[in-house]
Amino acid sequence: MAVTDTEDLGAGAKRPSRLFKNLAGKIAAIPMIFTAVVVFIGCTLWTIYHSFTKSRLLPAPEKWVGLDNYERLWGENRWLISIENLAIYGACSLILSLIIGFVLAALLDRKIRFENTIRTIILYPFALSFVVTGLVWQWILNPALGLQNVVRSWGWESFTFDPINNAEIVIYGILIAGIWQGSGFVMVLLLAGMRGIDEDVWKASRVEGIPTWKTYIFIVIPMMRPVFVTALVIISAGIIKVYDLVVAQTSGGPGIASEVPAKYVIEKMFLSQNLGLGFAASTMMLLSVLVVLIPWAYLEFGGKKNG
Amino acid sequence: MKLTTKLLAATAIVSASAASAVELEVTHWWTSGGEAAAVSEFAKAFDATEHSWLDGAIAGSGGTARPIIISRILGGDPMHATQLNHGRQAEELVEAGLMLDLSDVAAAGGWADVVNPSNLLESCTLDGKVYCVPVNIHSPQWLWLSHAAYEKAGVDVPSDWFEYVESAPALRDAGLIPLAMGQQSWQTSLAFGAIQVAIGGTDLYIDVLTNKNAEAAAGAEMTAVFQAYADARSLSEGSNVQDWNQATNLVITGQAGAQMMGDWAQGEFQVANQVAGEDYTCLPGLGVNEIIATGGDAFYFPKQDDPAIEAAQKELAALMISPEMQVAFNLKKGSLPIRGDVDLSAANDCMKKGLKILAAGNILPDGVNAFSADTAGQIEDLMVEMWNDQSVTVEDAQARYTAIIADAD
Hints:
The structure holds 2 protein chains of 2 kinds. By secondary structure, chain A is mostly helical. Chain A is built from 14 helices and no strands. In chain A, helix 3 crosses helix 14 (about 275-305) and helix 8 (about 170-195) runs antiparallel to helix 11 (about 225-240). Residues about 1-15 of chain A have low confidence and may be disordered. In chain B, a hairpin with a 2-residue loop joins strand 4 (about 125) and strand 5. Chain B starts with a helix and ends with a helix. The radius of gyration of chain B is 23 Å and the shape is globular. The longest helix of chain B is centred in the N-terminal third of the chain and has 19 residues, at about 1-20. Chain B has 2 domains: about 25-140 and about 295-360, D-Maltodextrin-Binding Protein, domain 2 (3-Layer(aba) Sandwich), CATH 3.40.190; about 140-295 and about 370-405, Periplasmic binding protein-like II (D-Maltodextrin-Binding Protein, domain 2), CATH 3.40.190.10. By secondary structure, chain B is an alpha/beta fold. At the A-B interface, helix 13 of A face helix 3, helix 4 and helix 20 of B.
């Protein structure tokens, strides 16, 4: 009797203790959990709710207008151009910065001389803010001061390279600046991943007589999957929120040819004083992130559990 | 007990000394040469009192500055005074009780009697209370012509918009840009407003902007306005500058024939030591319809908790509208004073033209007074798109404009 009693007691005492297991860690996590729930989820829901209202300069939760803001949003040329620009910028910047980053990392990985120096030089643009990057490239791409002028002064008089003032290709001018700024960081990430690969893998492939480039593509890349995922998430987050680069480099011009969604949101909220429309636009931005993120997360995490 | 008394006494001393000298942070977007010279007149005069002026200039035009100013006020970090334009930009901020009520200052200074035209004070007034100080009158509908450019092209300086359009090919042939235009969106929007008043005429302007008559916006007179706007956009090809004062500089240096810009451009000509009538010519209403819109700048004073600051805010408000300040400030800025009882004999030709129009009562309600920021923003987007994209046709733009006017508020 007495023994079972103590055992029961012990079991009873153990069960609540699971909640308090690693108590210090849980207490430490409370601020982050609180921030995540209140700030991210709470404010997101608040924003989505208000996107269905006729809020102007101040939030007006009582003025419900249904889908009006969304209808107007998708009827606006400027928004459509913003989305198109983001798609072009996003796709190109994602692919190019991964490719350039990987090639640079692979070259540095070949145990070259002055690796540290070269790595620092390539990473250096990442230390600059987007505003500085935008201004620097505005000058470099300015036909009267920058690249075009330099090439012409070398004697190629008919050389024309003026993306900033050409509505058709201005987004590629911004893309150049974005990649210049971001690919060094991708390179460093991928280089770290490459250094994590076991030397024995290289030895084995050398024994098998597999060429270096094949080893990189068919062995190293699949092994670096987690690093690629990290790089992908960081690059994508940067793409969705691109704003300061555009403001500094072109301020959306010429005309509205280089507008991006984040700029649209800010200007509708505070310049046009139409919070409802700005919220609708930011909800669409969130939705576009989720459309990409949910299937990916399902494949990445859901798949593993089942398999 | 003793300690409490001491503390109380200490607080009293601190607040007393605070009451005697306060530093007020004033935000504005006056950063070009002429503008900066004008605003420093305010700062100097305010520094001469016991208080001091902390300058919070925000570079990059009102389009950049307004979101910063408004988000600071909404975010609970208000500056002590800020420039905004007359009209509806601050409407909701006032309604939400975020702005200081200046009615007692206005009553003491007799603003109701001195402010001319009176609609400037009306746009500062809500429910019988005054919330802002008008400091100047600006009219955007001016055409500035460079004599040097016309000399080079070998044609006479035009006297109205139509002559100017005719003279444009000669300017092109001489390797000059006929029309200087900054790329910032408000500048293209301003050009449209100027053309609308000049080509469309006053009645149409009032009908569309004040009555929001969509039928008038779709009419043939409006088509002529859009046509003129489409013509103007091809005249500006090659003018790849950003800020308005850079565009003005193209006119000052004779690289461009003309610029459509508000009367604040005058400050730049003045800083460059140019003489009206000799080095440049100004045509109000583009020389076609000599009428000016009476928009302008006003100062708002966001509410503060500290009574000492509030007192200083009111002092600054009274200072800004005083006759001496009105003269000093507006002479530098090239704008017109908001009171009719000051002596502006020192004004140059262009300002005198403006004063004459004002005295004759040829004034319009300004666009910003008539439209909410939202509608104004939509029109701006359309105008910018059309200006920079030759594939946007006159019919297309007019149809979209009509739709905006139909939904306008």
